[in-house]
Amino acid sequence: MARYTADSKEKVKDAVDMLALVGQYSDLRKAGPVNYKGLCPFHDERTPSFNVNVDERFFKCFGCGEGGDALSFVQKKEGLDFIGALEYLAERFGVELELEDEDPVAARRRMQQARLTELLRRTADFYVRNLWESREAAHARAYLAERGLDEQLLREFRVGYAPRKWDAVLIPSRKAGYSEQELLDAGLVIRSQQGGRPYDRFRARITFPLCDRRGHVMGFGARRLADDDKGPKYLNSNDGPVFSKGKNVYASDIARVHATKAGTVILAEGYTDVIALHQAGLRNTVGLMGTSLTTDQVMELARLAPTVLLALDADSAGQEAMLRAARVAAGRKLSLRVIPLPTGMDPADLVQAQGPEKMRELAAASLPFVSFRVRRVLDTADLTTAEGKDAAIDELRPVFADIPPSALREELARLVADRTDLQPTLVASWLAGPARRAPAPGGGERRAAPVLPQRRATPVVAPPGAAPAPPRAAPAAQAPAAPARTVAPARTTPPPADGEGWEGMDLLEPDPDTLDPGTGEGPFGPAAPAVLPSSSGSTGAGAPGGPASPAPPAAAPPAPPPPAPAPSGPHARTERALLIQVVARPDIGRAALREIGGADAFTSDLHRRVVTLLLSHDGPPSAHLPADDPELASLMAGLVVRAGEQVSDAVTLEAEVLKLRLAMVERQMKQARANGSSEVPALARERQTLQQAYHAAMAKHMESDA
């Protein structure tokens, strides 16, 4: 390690412009004669507590406690040791460092490294000149223009062109005094298999210099252009004394300041993807350098920002790369999110086809990585069979094991329930439970069926306008009993199947989703037993007219007919949630119903009748309860009561409309997959757009609540 004189260190400290140095990472405002103040670049804060004294060249944050001089600032922000920070500042502010007596071997190694770095810089400059000035590079310029990349930005990234000649770099470098071994160590030439003669490694290719965070060229990535080139599409420098492709990320020297200020860094895959995203205004973007994410690269990303947005291709290879990234980042203080790119498009294609604004919208709508994983499993699973649903839940169980109790966990569990068309309480219990045991070969023990929540009888109240139901018979008495209320026996059968036994929109009976699977109780405890009238018409000891007499033995009257099948299941719950909002805000709700197609947007006949009723009358919905349709009157009464219990506004209504539209697209996709239709990709894109709009509406709703 180089040892610099004390005088050199003092010269560096004196030369530092603290305002220029720290101003890269925080917008500083004058707070006194020599003091400036801004948001701390070392921790997240909303009120500035970070102070800089430009005379003393000292910084201090009174929020997180970080403080020190220019050297310690660079060490903390750039992840450098003391010598690295000193060299960084010396180069930045034009100070020549003087060495103390140095070990000859170390001095030789340092000089060799410096010569190789200078050789690579010279070569990068040569490639840049060749791209913009040579006739041979005309097709390279045309290709970059077709990709929609701006010349000024390409020059900033030092993109160049390597000539077709075998010795375009070899001969001038030799004339400049560089040896063949130095050219080999720099990765600029290779030896032929026959005779071992050296020749240029990069020929007839567009070149992208690969730099460290300080902008020093370490190697090149090069894209093939010639039709007769049988080599790989992208060719990188080989690992050597200077370059190691698994230790750095592409464009970190350009993106690091922007990433620090944004608090996020975007990770793309290709070189042109990175440049296209910078052109779209996303200046905090870096690239993978064509390799799988390594531990060193994760550490490099963490130095840039605490949150990484993955903008990798939406194809299977890109999605696998995201999963690998998550495995490498596990256990480190790095938050991963995913930018939902359309299938079949990389970032550069998207920017060129749909414009920079679309890319910025997608970046703003990034998903937590765990949401991406859940959606990926659901998108690739066969959810048309019970076995496929079981397999999807088994695959998701370890994913949910890493999610703490939170609103995100509840939202994802609800998504799984909606996509699998299963009860949310059951899905939540299966996702939280142990892994299923596979049956023994040829038979053997099978998994026990889950215990379904039990429904109990609840008071039956006739809504306004509905015909009164005939009284239910009390169980036959085995012995005379003291005067008391006649109580209907509790039902102990499992909840009915989808579309059966649903009474009054769960106004009178707990929704199955709110019942505890173990006890069968709702969120407010056991339901009250049903109170039935006695044969004399009184309701028990508390009724007017004195105590009731025991009912005389008599044949039980005929039981009332069972309630008509009514909507249930995930789609029905989504439809009911929207109807509640419409009833709560009919002024804007009716317009929303018309916009989505009215009754045609609903799957249940009863819900369609509700929509028809709402759209055929103005004024309060409670004023038009039909007397000739008890089933519809019962549902409307429940909707009116529920609407009065909930907070309703335009934002909530918008979110429920988007949720219903999502459910409609999900059904269309399911049908399209079953029919082998070619409309699946278009429907997937529509679903993605709706999901982004729904998340934006929910975020707006949470902001208004806050």
TrEMBL record:
Cofactor (UniProt): Zn(2+)
Ranges of residues in domain Toprim: 263-342
Stretches with biased composition (Pro residues): 461-473, 547-568
Residue spans of biased composition, Acidic residues class: 500-514
Gene3D superfamilies: 3.40.1360.10, DNA primase, catalytic core, N-terminal domain (3.90.980.10), Zinc finger, CHC2-type domain (3.90.580.10)
Entry EC no(s): 2.7.7.101
Pfam families linked: DnaB_bind, DNAG_N, Toprim_2, Zn_ribbon_DnaG
Zinc fingers typed CHC2-type, residue spans: 40-64
Catalysis performed (reactions): ssDNA + n NTP = ssDNA/pppN(pN)n-1 hybrid + (n-1) diphosphate
Keyword field: DNA replication, DNA-binding, DNA-directed RNA polymerase, Magnesium, Metal-binding, Nucleotidyltransferase, Primosome, Transcription, Transferase, Zinc, Zinc-finger
Family, per entry: Belongs to the DnaG primase family.
Quaternary context: Monomer. Interacts with DnaB.
Protein name in the entry: DNA primase
Gene that specifies this protein: dnaG
